[in-house]
Specification:
Helix content: 40-55%
CATH architecture of the largest domain: Alpha-Beta Barrel
Shape: globular
Bound molecules: flavin mononucleotide
Structural class: alpha/beta
Low-confidence stretches: none
Order of helices and strands: EEEHEHHEHEHHEHEHEHEHHHHHH
Mean pLDDT: 94
Number of helices: 15
Radius of gyration: 20 Å
Distance between the termini: 25 Å
Length: 339
């Protein structure tokens, strides 16, 4: 397997689960880690929320040994607060801290953080330095291409990051204004890679293992980061890692449903409140069955999911239905599973 190191931390694979607010909580990360993600990143954590000790913020940082190495992502625009927050994050025992320079949500932008920092590179550099000086674990920065389409913002910010002692950068080459529209411009990842000596993680529009190989080949990046495509398809990491090693691996239907069950059970444990966990999992389990035969009937039943027993039965029954001989051909046609 291709080696991938950030600072003194070596990852088992060069595939990273992207931070996704509202998605990459502990149960989700445990699942993607089991499926081969070399590095998992928390949902973004507000530096000021952390300083003012909001309980919700601490919950975002809950971790388990099996998911290590874990990066906790911080957002904020004040160097002092970011540095203090980073110290507290390091004290939780995580392996890395990531600074969010990519979020384009209005609520975050109006505080001057997230991708707003791409428009204030000097302040961003101050933040990188302050955080780097405050911690001894590796520090990474996740950025967009910039405010506009020139791509120069990413080059400048990446250089500032390296100068400030940041250990790796991740680049999602869409502009802040673009949000998620259009296509990411991978040529910017290549430019950033060519201009730095620290590792560069490429991100944006990887949907298949072949896309990941193509990103490695066209940009020279050191690792790939996958976001939306892994929601509901954690085995994408397994297939991608296999292809990086020159093999084609298809997950089995049994493994897919085992993941659904694991995710469901871990979410029940995480939320402790059975009803809240079930409500959350209605949409989550729906992602897993996208494109599978009979998924709309399964989704209709999910709408009324309120108990652990009901959820486990739904998962088992749908699995058994798909595993019958008469469904085999239809499942095969989806191209996602073998056996
Ligand atoms: C629902 C959702 C939540 C996201 N939350 C975060 C976040 O908390 N921090 C961050 O840096 N990026 C966040 N992103 C951006 C992703 O990490 C990633 O950069 C983007 O989705 C592009 O990768 P993809 O094409 O593989 O999805 C989020 C994206 C989505 C769709």
């Amino acid at each position: 397997m291709k080696k991938f190191k950030i600072g003194n931390i070596e990852m088992e694979s060069p595939t990273v689960m992207a931070p996704l607010a509202g998605v990459t909580n502990l149960p989700f990360r445990l699942m993607t880690k089991e499926m081969g993600a070399g590095l998992v990143v928390s949902e973004m954590v507000s530096a000021s929320g952390l300083i003012y000790e909001s309980e919700k913020t601490f919950r975002l940082m809950e971790s388990r040994p099996e998911e290590k190495p874990l990066a906790i992502q911080l957002f904020g625009a004040d160097p002092g607060i970011m540095a203090e927050a980073a110290k507290r994050v390091e004290a939780t025992g995580c392996e890395m801290i990531d600074i969010n320079c990519g979020c384009s949500v209005k609520k975050v932008l109006k505080t001057g953080s997230g991708s707003a920092l791409m428009g204030t590179p000097k302040l961003a550099k101050e933040i990188f330095k302050a955080v780097k000086d405050a911690i001894s674990i590796p520090l990474t920065v996740k950025m967009r291409s910039g405010w506009d389409a020139s791509g120069e913002d990413a080059l400048l910010l990446a250089r500032y990051a390296q100068e400030a002692g940041v250990d790796a950068v991740a680049v999602h080459p869409r502009t802040a204004r673009q949000a998620f529209r259009g296509h990411s411009d991978w040529s910017i990842i290549k430019k950033v890679k060519e201009s730095l000596t620290i590792p560069v993680i490429g991100n944006g529009d990887i949907h298949t293992p072949e896309d990941a190989i193509s990103m490695f080949d066209t940009t020279g990046c050191d690792a790939v980061m996958i976001g939306r495509a892994a929601i509901g398809d954690p085995a994408l990491f397994k297939r991608t890692n296999a292809l990086i090693s020159g093999q084609i691996v298809k997950p089995t239907l049994t493994e897919h449903f085992r993941m659904m069950e694991r995710y469901f059970i871990d979410t029940l444990d995480y939320f402790t409140d059975e009803f809240i966990a079930c409500k959350t999992m209605r949409s989550r389990l729906g992602w897993f069955v996208k494109g599978l035969p009979g998924s709309s009937a399964f989704r209709k039943e999910l709408v009324a999911l309120t108990t652990r027993k009901q959820g486990l039965e739904l998962i088992h029954n749908y699995h058994h239905h798909l595993a019958t001989d008469e469904m085999a051909e239809k499942v095969e046609l989806t191209g996602r599973f073998s056996g």
